[in-house]
Specification:
heterodimer, A: mainly alpha, 3% strand, disordered N terminus, B: 2 domains
Chain lengths: 707, 507
């Protein structure tokens, strides 16, 4: 209906389905022909497929620019049609979905390229090169699903992509499904992610049911047009819609209370952590709220709830990040915290600020994860070097001891690192860029987007502003701590001593991402508001007002000072006197506070105790006691069989009354014998029952016929 | 001659021709017997395709009727009446589709008394087809009871160690359930002067309180078959003990006879009672969804896990039917097909590993994906279909059912509360729990048992067995329109009946 009248651009928009097809073709090529292709070819096909999707996204941006940002709808396939329920696969090209497609495919393509190098080493390190192809198939599948998610024109299609990316996440977290703690750790992490997400999906589903029966449709345009009216007539329903939707958001975007799956998701290979569990998939919840802006703005209570969940998550996760030693876990909790910033932003109505932070975060967090991957592989190369060196060693006894040590060696533990600045210079510089961007130091990307969120919060929601500011202080601190622990001081282990830099196929994407993380803030500089004007078209279409606040010197100065101060604090603790071998973390002096942060405030344990263990107990109780012992055995024997036995005895008596004693006695005995036989499960039984039942039926029929 | 070449007669009784041929073969000619059975069932499938081509999807009424007076004694007006409509066409297709697949799956699994096995199997197909086509209550009852016999022997002869117990239990429960239904059928036939279902519907006029009794009598028979909680306790035995092909047909088709009975008889014949009973039926359905999912999770035997998951899945079907609106009923009918495909495929997959390892205890496995990558990938797809991932068939049905049930929960709807759909939706979470648990136990983690290292991946015959199911799993998931198109007018007619009844019941 909104199909553009401009014919030249509308043909351009017809290309939008290819944003899904290209990666789909890529994965099919790799499934069908991948077995005969070299690793490089497989990686190239997958990267090209993702790159072409990026090309389509760019074309759509051009088309939109020519089209003055007017949204375009491209019908593609009829899906579920039942009565009033009309669910179609229709593509929606507007500036909001375009931002998502651009960010996802750009970062996605860079990560594909990086993974060519990373997975080459990873599959060998883990000892199963055969899985190289599978990795790229899954990665392309992820791009397919993510594109469906962000380009769908209805909640139903969004949900298709939503569950689809969840599946890819499951497959990729469990990529090394035979590794991890006890050999099963990764598989358990994958399952945890899927189930936690399903809890969120339950919320999303219910939100959709409510929406359909209140609005009569799941298409964005229909729903948003009616939103003001329905919010007037049935505010309770609309509030329920937003809150159930929020449950979905907490699942996918890892917010309180469902965030617990994301740290475990780090079991996936590092490119996966970067792409899915930092830059793109986890931001789907933010996208969902931004997309549903016309509904959320109707109800301040809904907005406040979302903002508060985001604010609390931002601070809570930041405290945990401070107490972690695993290089990826720090980044994981940081991601949860940063997602909290975004959710808080879109929650309080600062949709542009939230989306802006989503984009810059995609750049610098992908950068950080990939650099962390580079660090980890650098450490593994060092470990390999050490182990290899030992084989030449003459002292067998010492070798054994060392091997034992190497066996428990954790290349992701920051306490095993130190001094990597000189060993891996490129990685160091890009990591530093990412960290400073995340910490919010001007003029890097993170500063601008985070500052915009804080600025909006200072106007719209003071409690959330305070939460976010505290979180920002911790952010700068834990990133400082990480940089100093990993890259500065002396090397603390032999593998760190022998760590080596990664190959160009990995470092070049890193450098590109570093440039993006550095200059990404230019997207929406104060005064220019390019990004805001771009997104305006989408939000204004449904009368969601966007108000660009003027740049505020006090807010910006305060957050800059706080960021620099906490980096200095980190330097004082970890940089001035670098950590020595086996030296405990200086923060241990905080006592229980640090123990709490290190142990993630025992939230996992609480969930297990309160919910999961209870469910397992209940399931076993139902299965063993209720279903089997009571229902299957006792009820069957004492009620069903007993009834049949008495029925057949009754029949026997009837025959007896006929006066044929001998036969009657025989039958009665036979019946009792049959009852005994039943317990011994004998063959002849059923025929007799069928017979007795049949006789009974005949009697009844006869009665009915001749009464 | 017309009678013999009538498409519905041909599709129903063609397998008898195969039986006849097999009767003349010797027990030793195992492969010939297998081929004869397979080709017979494939031709039957072809005939059903021809029926599908002739079927007019736009027509809500019964089509291709063959309606002849049959038993006309003592004032009984029993007809030989076969016809097909939108409620049954898909189930007919499912029956003829799953039979050759099941036969193919027995190729190496069944090696004793192949002759008897195939005869019973083809007879079973006749019975099942007849159940879905019969439009005369008496004729229906005969087909209905007839299916028990071959199934009883399939479980009792080729089943696992506890096969006799399971077969007897299966027979006993279904038989017991049917008794009251027979009484109800006779009452209807004698009082209304006809056994023909469309005539009975057109005649109507059964007082509401009598409707309720008749509804209960029919419902008991069907609910045991479905099986609805709490009448399910025969199911785990029958499934676990049955040979693979038996489980596939049992789950795929026989259970659908129960749900089909509700939509074909209970709801149109006793619409007022159906509206009255809807909350109770929906409540039992929701309990079944959650109970089945929880009990599934606490299993050690993978076949038992799948068996209990059926209780959960069919709970969804029942919930959809008793939402009594378009989304609910269409979703439910589609979900009958989906369950036949997904659970059928799961039983095939379980059978394949059982044939290799002779155990189904999940602790004996682990890490199979590395050893059997094709098997792992296919099981993953089927599992995802079973847990309702969008893009695969299960989601389409579940989504429509839950959406319909939610709508029925609005004020003034037949259910009148959103708790039904709300709790049922929790089943979506629990499904992920038991399905992923199963997948993890079998396929993920390290290889813990030496015996598993030598397992061979699927062979071509096994892959061919599964591929048709996978195609439909994707087809329904991505483009369910033709399937809904087949049933929509007929479902609309049922709903109009229900609405009429609700209106009539208003003071």
């Amino acid at each position: 209906m909104l199909l553009s009248e401009v014919s030249t651009t509308s043909t351009l928009f017809q290309l939008i389905p290819w944003i899904v097809f290209f990666p789909a073709i890529g994965l099919l090529i790799n499934i069908i022909f991948g077995g005969r292709m070299s690793e490089k070819a497989i990686g190239a096909v997958a990267s090209l497929a993702s790159g072409l999707a990026f090309g389509i996204a760019v074309l759509m941006a051009i088309g939109l620019a020519q089209n003055h940002g007017e949204p375009v709808v491209v019908p593609f396939l009829e899906w579920i049609h039942i009565g009033d329920l009309q669910l179609d696969w229709t593509f929606r090209v507007d500036t909001l979905s375009n931002v998502m497609t651009l960010a996802v495919t750009l970062v996605g393509t860079l990560i594909h390229i990086y993974a060519i190098g990373y997975m080459h080493e990873d599959v060998r390190h883990q000892g199963d090169p055969g899985r190289y192809r599978r990795f790229f198939v899954f990665l392309n599948l992820f791009i397919v699903m993510m594109m469906i998610l962000v380009t769908g024109d209805s909640y139903a299609m969004l949900f298709v992509g939503w569950e689809g990316v969840g599946l890819c996440s499951y497959l990729l977290i469990g990529f090394w499904y035979d590794k991890g703690e006890g050999g099963i750790g990764n598989a358990l992490a994958a399952k945890k992610a899927f189930v936690a997400n399903r809890v969120g999906d339950f919320g999303f589903l219910v939100a959709m049911f409510l929406t359909f029966w209140a609005f009569g449709s799941l298409d964005f345009a229909n729903v948003f047009e009616k939103a003001p009216e329905i919010a007037q007539t049935m505010p309770g329903v609309v509030l329920a819609i937003t809150l159930f939707m929020l449950l979905g958001v907490t699942g996918k975007s890892a917010q309180i209370p469902l965030y617990v799956w994301l740290p475990d998701a780090m079991a996936g290979p590092t490119p996966v952590s970067a792409l899915i569990h930092a830059a793109t998939m986890v931001t789907a919840g933010v996208y969902l709220v931004a997309r549903s802006a016309p509904i959320f703005v109707q109800l301040p209570q809904a907005q406040n709830t979302v903002a508060m969940v985001g604010g609390l998550t931002a601070l809570f996760a930041a405290t945990i990040a401070v107490g972690q030693f695993d290089i990826k876990k720090v980044l994981a909790y940081s991601t949860i915290s940063q997602l909290g910033f975004m959710v808080a932003a879109v929650g309080m109505g600062a949709f542009v600020a939230g989306m802006f932070h989503l984009v810059t975060h995609a750049f610098f967090k992908a950068l950080l994860f990939l650099s962390a991957g580079s660090v980890i592989q650098g450490m593994e190369r060092g470990e390999h070097h050490v182990a290899h060196h030992q084989q030449d060693d003459l002292h067998a006894a010492r070798r054994k001891k060392k091997q034992k040590e190497a066996h428990t060696f954790d290349p992701q533990d920051m306490r095993n690192m130190g001094g990597l600045r000189t060993k891996m210079p490129v990685t160091f510089w890009v990591y530093l860029t990412g960290a400073v961007a995340l910490a919010g130091v001007p003029p890097l990307a993170g500063f601008w987007s985070k500052d915009e969120i804080l600025l909006e919060a200072s106007h719209l929601n003071m409690p959330v502003y305070i939460l976010l500011t505290l979180a920002a202080i911790l952010t700068a601190f834990y990133m400082g701590r990480q940089i100093f622990m990993v890259f500065f001081g002396e090397t603390r282990t032999a593998p760190a001593e022998h760590a080596e830099e990664s190959p160009p196929v990995m470092t070049i994407p890193l450098i590109i991402l570093a440039i993006l993380a550095f200059f990404g803030g230019a997207l929406n500089l104060p005064g220019l508001h390019t990004f805001e004007h771009w997104l305006e078209h989408t939000f204004m279409a449904f009368e969601v007002e966007l108000e660009a606040l003027p740049f505020s010197i006090p807010v910006a100065t305060l957050s800059t000072i706080l960021a620099l101060a906490s980096i200095t604090g980190a330097w004082a603790l970890y940089g001035r006197k670098p950590l020595q071998k086996k030296q405990p973390d200086p923060l241990r002096k905080l006592g229980w506070l640090f123990t709490g942060m290190e142990n993630k405030w025992w939230v996992d344990e609480i969930y297990w105790f309160l919910i999961l263990d209870r469910y397992v107990d209940l399931a076993w109780f139902l299965a063993d006691e209720v279903d089997w012992r009571f229902w299957h055995d006792w009820f069957h024997e004492k009620v069903i069989l007993a009834t049949f036995n008495s029925l057949s005895r009754l029949l026997a008596l009837r025959v007896d009354l006929g006066g044929i004693d001998r036969i009657a006695n025989g039958l009665a005995d036979g019946t009792q014998a049959l009852a005994a036989c039943m317990r011994r499960l004998q063959t002849g039984f059923v025929r007799n029952y069928a017979l007795s039942v049949f006789v009974g039926v005949v009697v009844i029929i006869g009665y009915l016929m001749f009464r | 001659m017309d009678f013999l070449t009538h498409p519905l007669n041909v599709v129903t009784f063609f397998p008898l021709l195969g039986v006849l041929v097999i009767l003349f073969l010797k027990e030793e000619q195992k492969n010939t017997i297998r081929w004869v059975a397979l080709i017979t069932s494939l031709i039957a499938f072809g005939i059903s395709l021809a029926v599908l081509v002739q079927f007019n999807a736009a027509n809500p009424d019964l089509q291709m009727s063959i309606n002849l007076p049959w038993i006309q004694v003592a004032g009984w007006n029993i007809h030989y009446f076969l016809a097909v409509d939108g409620l049954s066409i898909l189930l007919l297709m499912l029956t003829t589709f799953l039979t050759p697949i099941s036969i193919l799956s027995t190729w190496t699994a069944i090696d004793e008394r192949v002759k008897d096995f195939m005869i019973f199997f083809l007879l079973l197909e006749v019975g099942m087809t007849g159940v879905f086509l019969a439009q005369d209550l008496f004729l229906f009852y005969i087909f209905w009871e007839f299916t028990l016999v071959p199934m009883y022997f399939l479980i009792g002869i080729w089943g696992g160690p506890q096969r006799m117990y399971a077969a007897v239990k299966f027979f006993l429960y279904t038989m017991a359930g049917s008794l009251l239904m027979l009484l109800a059928i006779l009452w209807l036939g004698i009082n209304q002067g006809t056994f023909s279902v469309p005539e009975l519907i057109a005649k109507g006029g059964i007082p509401a309180d009598v409707q309720l009794w008749l509804f209960v009598a029919f419902a008991l028979a069907f609910a045991i078959k479905v099986p609805m909680w709490p009448l399910h306790s025969w199911l785990p035995d029958a499934h676990v003990q049955a040979p693979t092909a038996g489980s596939v047909i049992l789950a795929g088709v026989l259970l659908k006879m129960g749900t089909y009975g509700f939509i074909r008889f209970n709801i149109p014949l006793f619409p007022q009672a159906a509206v009255k009973a809807a909350p109770v039926m929906a409540a039992l359905a929701v309990i079944g969804i959650l109970y089945g999912a929880a009990v599934s999770y606490a299993q050690e035997d993978v076949k038992k896990l799948v068996a209990y998951s059926s209780i959960s899945h069919l709970g969804f079907v029942m919930l959809g039917l008793f939402a009594l609106n378009e989304q609910g009923i269409q979703g439910a009918i589609l979900q009958m097909i989906n369950h036949g495909l997904s659970t059928g495929a799961l039983f095939l997959l379980v059978g394949m590993i059982y044939e290799r390892r002779h155990t189904r205890i999940m602790d004996k496995f682990g890490g199979l994906w590395s050893i059997m990558p094709i098997y792992g990938a296919l099981t993953l797809i089927v599992s995802l279909s079973s847990m309702g991932l969008p893009g695969l068939n299960g989601f389409v049905g579940e989504f429509a059912i839950l959406l319909g049930a939610w709508g029925a929960g609005d004020a003034g709807g037949v259910l009148g509360s959103h708790y039904y759909a709300g709790f049922a939706a929790i089943g979506v979470i629990l499904a992920a729990v038991y399905i992923l648990f199963m997948f993890q136990k079998l396929f993920l983690g390290p290889i813990t048992h030496e015996e598993n290292k030598k397992l061979s991946d699927l062979n071509w015959r096994e892959i061919i067995t599964l591929v048709p199911l996978l195609i439909l799993i994707f087809w329904i998931g991505l483009y369910p329109k033709p399937f809904f198109g087949l049933m929509a007018p007929a479902v609309g007619k049922v709903i109009a009946l229900v609405h009429g009844a609700v209106m009539a019941a208003l003071p």
